[in-house]
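hi!! sorry for the late reply, been swamped w classes. u asked for the two structures so here they r. pasted raw, havent cleaned anything up. first the sequence of the first protein and right below it the tokens
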Amino acid sequence: MRLRRPVLAATLIMLASPCFAESSTPIPVNNPPAQQNSFVDLLALISGHCKTLKVAGRPFACKTVAYAHDDRGRVNFAVAVDDPTDENHVVSFSGENGKRADDNSYELPIDRMLLNSKDRPKVDGLPVPAEQASKGICRQTGNFAARKVNDVTCSATDNEGRSYELLFVSDGTPVSVRRIRQSAPSIQDPFK
């Protein structure tokens, strides 16, 4: 079964609950679309709430964060945005070459933001996210193998100067981890 980023977005949308938030408007993107030839091989859904979620400096609420790893080593921390005006609003902090400092911490350098909304072009009925070159970092405390993640913090700035922030705190529910297909590990782990 082939799962692409749009399927991840659809999964996040179904899990998000509506609440009151500032309405969204499309963020202009100045990067050409990249080829989407990779497939998600590991998906972890983390239940909790956002203490902070800012998209291009604007505050939003969210419910779910997903960690998605693809077969080429790219990782996304995808955030289902609670946006009453846009059920397809998903923002992802995306990068490669994540590192584990120990069994309970993970850092991912961010090199792009993936911005999805109802206004994006669709493939197979699902919106395809715009990619915006960015710089930043995400930090996760906790461990997927133990099915416990405490929090995820991310901060990035895109090449247009817009800022993105996330502070997501787990509600203690065990993380739902799904290995979709086997692939080579891409995390730099000094303990193995």
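now the second protein. again sequence first, tokens right under
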Amino acid sequence: MTLHKINKKIVGYKVLSKDSAEAVQQAEAEKPSLESMHENVERPEMLLGSTYKIKTPQSEHALYITINDMLLNEGTAHEERRPYEIFINSKNMEHFQWVLALTRVISAVFRKGGDATFLVEEMKAVFDPRGGYFKKGGVFMPSLVAEIGSAIESHMKHIGMIKPEKMTDHQKQFLAEKRREFEAAHGESDAQAFPEKAVLCVKCSTKAMVLMDGCMTCLNCGESKCG
């Protein structure tokens, strides 16, 4: 006879017959165990891959970042796509040694399982002592490592590991109105870029902060020095 100590208040009870108890045990035994990423998971013959191109002003050759994913619990309601490995290729051999080391470490973290999204913030916080650069659209990258981290972030958003912060329709309308007001006073800008007089926003790292009505406001994320 097995004794069980009850530490919580009893709010209801049900008497199980032998047959019903066996049915419950059978249902528990048949319940499928969910597959998760771990370091001993066997690599399948085929992985789903996505490749991202990075072109920096620091090199004439682009970098191509390929991230291969595994499908876990395929065909079920719990299906999810998780990164398994990463490769970085370029004609520029200057950074070959540390780039190869970086890909092996990141791939090992991916295969370890758990929450690997911390990699994004760690990599985006790396600064190049020689100075960073601006991407097309005015986004500031403090280093090549940071841009690789940004590519990984884009991929994690694509497969659902990171939920992107979406602006409300009201916020979008507010920013559109602010941009029209600024352009009416200072001249129109390229539809794909922010005004030339814009400065770097410390929140979204985009050169999109302008002075309006005595207040610095970011036309990209809505950050305002006036709260």
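hope this helps!! also noticed smth abt the second:
Residues 141 and 147 are 6 Å apart (CA to CA).
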